[in-house]
Amino acid sequence: MTTELVDRKIYEREELATGTDAVAHAVRLADVDVFSAYPIRPYTGVMDRLAKFIADGKFDSEYIIADGEHSQFEIAKHASSVGARAFAGSSGTGWLYATEALAATATDRLPLVALVGNRALDDPGAFGVEHNDAMLVRDLGWLIVWASTAQEALDTTLIAYRVAEDPSVMMPCAVAIDGGYLTHSQHIVKIPTKEAVQKFLPPYNLGTRRMHPDNPVSIAPQINEDWGMEIRRQNWEAARRARGVIYRAYKEYNEVFHSSYANPFFEEFMMEDAEIALIGMGTVTSAAKAAVKLLREKGVKVGYVKLRWFRPFPAEELRESLSEVRAVGVIDRDFAHGGPDDGGVLFNDVRAALYHSSNRPQIVDFIGGLAGREISIEDVARMVRITANHKGEGELVTWIRVREGNGAGMERKGGD
Amino acid sequence: MAQGWRGKEAIEMATTTGVSKEEFKNAKLYKSVHGIDMEEFYTSGHRTCQGCESALVMRDFVKASGPRTVVTGATGCMYVANTSYMTTPWVVPWMHTQLGGGGASAVGMAAGLRALMRKGKIPDEKINVINFSGDLGGGDMGLGGISGALQTDYDMLIIIYDNESAANTDIQATNMTPWGAQTTFTPTGSKKRIMHDKWKKNVAPMLAIGHPNCKYVATACATFPPMDYMNKVKKALSIGGPTLIHTMDPCPKGWDYHPRYSGDLGQLAIKTGIFPLYEIIKGEVNYTYDARKTKRVPVREYLEKQGRFSHFIEDDFEFVQSRVDEMWNDWEIPGVAPIKGWLSVRR
């Protein structure tokens, strides 16, 4: 690097931006045609920022304040159906309120990009991060990707449009960022130029499915048993094809923006010669990396895998990455009560992926950070210890930083 | 059955009713049935029941709207019976939207088209954006979404086709089912003769009164008076901004009558005054069949022709008649605003 911190042909400037600010810049730069808003913490900042762009004449888009999340996502879906690039977003229970529209957006194969500012589900109300909201659509035909820094949130939003709108994919994509920890924390973000973004992101083209009088089609008529299997199958194949498109998209992104994304699906941190590995999604990465560094200094051979793409799930790549480790600890910022071995959602996905590994490691689960509770460096160090000491017997799930019993009158515990 | 099907009086009402010619000079209103286009944009391929008047509502709105139209249909009988895969009756682009998604689907399409035209991504032209939702989808579940749509400034028309039941799922009561009607949710029984003891929700006026951006709200019946409904579609599409039409659709299956009487029952609904026919243009109410000025047919003649009211006793007929009389005699704006009816100012 010379005195210029950024290449001015690619980046217009640097800005101190929150995660939602960063996504707003990406939406503006993607020349989104229609976006619809409805307030709920903590994702809302993205809509506040986009509204200000509109007010200041910096962004040309239709902007609709909806009457609820269901309408918000129906608006975005139908805008997408006429060939307009659309954006929406939500958090927690608001995302769930839109569920019917979310499911239909996916089955209609409309490549909407949505921001999920992860938030705990009601009841009782809580603003903090939990991943269950975004995970709700994991089986419905949505692509889901987690970003863990503001820069990554910007990059990922542009990549999400590129992948979702690829003619061989045509699936909606949820960009998930942890509520509070990323939606509201500021990072230095490089803001790309419009020209560079145009080089990376081709115009949205819905082709022969576009709702326009020049293209008289009937979309989503009743199928029943006659065609349902074939349509589901096409969607299944598109999700498989998405893996290859994701590889290409990151490669193109690296070329245009001089970024250095290696494996697009996850980032491997100190995984060379690691015997113990932790894997997690979102902002827990900061604490995890810090803990891994400290433990490495003490000679513990530990690494961390930061998973980005949750759907499609990179099973093959994870088998490869985790093939040399002895034990894996999965950090679940979610819950799946009554699921297999009472583990979280990510745990059971990772475990399923590793089942077919020739060198299957031990695998344990950590449920923590729910409703926004902090996961500290010490917490991660404890996870590493438990993972390393696991002998393949006994309880597979450890709740991190939780009051035991019914919690009444008990002090909050940090570490063990 | 009812008289006056081709009555001169009715045709005059449909075409002249006090609407200033200036207001709709670009609407190209039909002046006689001979002027109605022959070309169809809703054709064969559907499997609606014989005598289905909601199907006529579909056929007529798109005929009035013409080929430069995009349509969404909310879940309901006009989704399920209309559009089986690969046998669509729609000649114009049509897309399904969720049961409560009607209003939002129109907003999405209108916003998308506006943005694409402004940015030069598609040619700039007038494209009619229409959603239809049933009484269950539009009047109950989707009411909030339609309210949201009427608060926007997009050009679009939402049609609530009202056959007074959830006709797709085997005739269940909705909040627009009339008082006393039998449905599978509201059967008559030995202990309770009247299970559906709610008066029909008055959806069109509620939406008209609460939404200052909405310049045109109308009620209509596809068969009576002739051309009235199609001209209302043309008016709604020409006036600009979000608009709403609520149609009264006799349903042989749900109302239990012979399919040949659909036209007559629609006519009777209007002539008895149980379904008020009007348009609200920029806040002004214009009766397109003024039941105050004509001698109303007793509601009994309308009710007793339908199996869904077969359990009615004398008291029931009288009760319905008294509510209809109250609507026309006592309401501040009959059929629209029940001030001095069951809603009044405390003195």
Strand content of chain B: 5-15%
The low-confidence runs of chain A, each spanning 5 or more residues with pLDDT under 50, are none
Task: Give me the strand/helix succession of chain A.
Answer: EHEHEHEHHEHEHEEHEHEEHEEHEHEHE
Find the count of extended strands of chain A (DSSP E, 2+ residues).
Answer: 16
Please report the distance between the alpha carbons of the first and last residues of chain B. Answer: 45 Å
Using the coordinates above, name the CATH class of the largest domain in chain A.
Alpha Beta
Describe the structure.
The complex is a heterodimer of chains A (416) and B (347). Chain A is an alpha/beta fold and 416 residues long. Chain A has two domains: 11-257, Thiamin diphosphate (ThDP)-binding fold, Pyr/PP domains (Rossmann fold, 3-Layer(aba) Sandwich); 266-399, Rossmann fold (3-Layer(aba) Sandwich), CATH 3.40.50. Chain A is 36% helix and 19% strand. Chain A contains 13 helices and 16 strands. Chain A has a seven-stranded mixed β-sheet, with helices on both faces. The longest helix of chain A has 30 residues, at 228-257. Chain A is globular, with a radius of gyration of 21 Å. The N and C termini of chain A lie far apart (44 Å). The relative contact order of chain A is 0.11. The model of chain A has no long low-confidence stretch (mean pLDDT 95). By secondary structure, chain B is of the alpha/beta class. Chain B has one domain: Thiamin diphosphate (ThDP)-binding fold, Pyr/PP domains (Rossmann fold, 3-Layer(aba) Sandwich), CATH 3.40.50.970. Chain B contains twelve helices and eight strands. Chain B has helices at residues 8-16, 53-65, 77-80, 102-118, 135-141, 143-150, 203-210, 228-239, 252-255, 262-271, 299-303, 314-329, and strands spanning 69-74, 94-97, 128-134, 156-162, 216-220, 242-248, 277-281, 284-289. Chain B has an eight-stranded mixed β-sheet with strand order 2-1-3-4-6-5-7-8, with helices on both faces. In chain B, strand 5, helix 8 and strand 6 (242-248) form a beta-alpha-beta unit. In chain B, helix 2 crosses helix 8, helix 4 packs parallel to helix 6 and helix 5 (135-141) packs across helix 6 (143-150). Chains A and B meet through helix 3, helix 5 and strand 9 of A and strand 1, strand 2, helix 4 and helix 6 of B.
